[in-house]
Amino acid sequence: MSAVPGAGTVLSVVIPMFNEESALPALVARLRPVLDGIGAGYGGAGYEVVAVDDGSSDRTAALLEDFRIGWPELRVVRLRRNSGHQAALTAGLHRAVGDYVVSIDADLQDPPEKIPEMLELARSGDLDIVYGVRTDRSADTGFKRRTAGVYYWLMRRLVGDRMPSQAGDFRLLSRQAVDALKELPDQQQVYRLLVPWLGFPSGQVSYEREERVAGETKYPLSRMIRLGVDSVTGFSAAPLRVATWLGVLSFFVCLLLIVFTLGAFAAGHVVPGWSSLFIGILFLGAVQLICLGLLGEYVGRIYTAVQRRPTFFVGYDSADAPRSVRAATVDETRD
């Protein structure tokens, strides 16, 4: 049985994880005192930590079960396969039961010590969303800082100034905001854009981004590019309009080539120049391929939406499983 949202649980902390065995001890050592302090500060209010194991191939699942023995507020959700960071985050948000839900990564680049400040700001200001905004990204590489700057500039052009610059997936959501997100039909959810799009009252807390505590980044260049493509195609038809303008541009270029050809003929240059023909063919071919690629991205998203396949499957939830299943799961993860 699933818990009733808000029934004694003030705060849920959702943590997507993929192969984070090296970072888990440090995460627990920093996160638990913060959350225990929140519970004491709110008269013993309950909290839960929803750790979503996104099909890890290392000992992440086994370590989580070990930590659960001494930390009853820790809840383990395991996906049947690796479904991606946003899908794991979706699974955690859908299963969290707190009045407020904080999402944070396991690498400790976003400090858990900011969670009490976020909760206090949400309560005192009657806010539904509190963003964690990075004021210092010196821990990141120069390439990542520059590409992130371009990404946030482009996304703000798409969804407007409601999206704070340099706000990632470290945020607090009220129960009303979480329920609104759960009702959205999007197959490929990008919460950095979906959350501002809701238009709920929001605030922000600032922090300095730290270095990853252990392990390797789960967002290499290929996944960053995929995130950018999903963000643009999921929230704007602008690329299709770009294809239209490319078609218009190619039309005028063709007109110029026609004028050039007629002029050459009138001047007595009867031998056609191969370079202008070659350039024209290359240009038109490139424009056509770009337009087909853009159309393919949107058709692919329509195809995915029509299929209505879930983006993740939950194989195990420690809050639902009986004791016998929990014991068997611990044994499996240790083998």
Automatic annotation (TrEMBL):
UniProt topology in membrane: Multi-pass membrane protein
Location (main, coarse): membrane
Glycosyltransferase 2-like domain boundaries: 12-180
Residue intervals passing through the bilayer: 245-271, 277-299
Origin: domain of life: Bacteria
InterPro entries: Glyco_trans_2-like, Glycosyltransferase_2, Nucleotide-diphossugar_trans
Gene Ontology terms, MF aspect: glycosyltransferase activity
Signal peptide: none
Documented EC number(s): 2.4.-.-
Cellular location(s): Membrane
Keyword Transmembrane helix: yes
Swiss-Prot/TrEMBL keywords: Glycosyltransferase, Membrane, Transferase, Transmembrane, Transmembrane helix
UniProt record similarity statement: Belongs to the glycosyltransferase 2 family.
PANTHER family per record: PROPHAGE BACTOPRENOL GLUCOSYL TRANSFERASE HOMOLOG, UNDECAPRENYL-PHOSPHATE 4-DEOXY-4-FORMAMIDO-L-ARABINOSE TRANSFERASE-RELATED
Protein name: Glycosyltransferase family 2 protein
Organism: Streptacidiphilus cavernicola
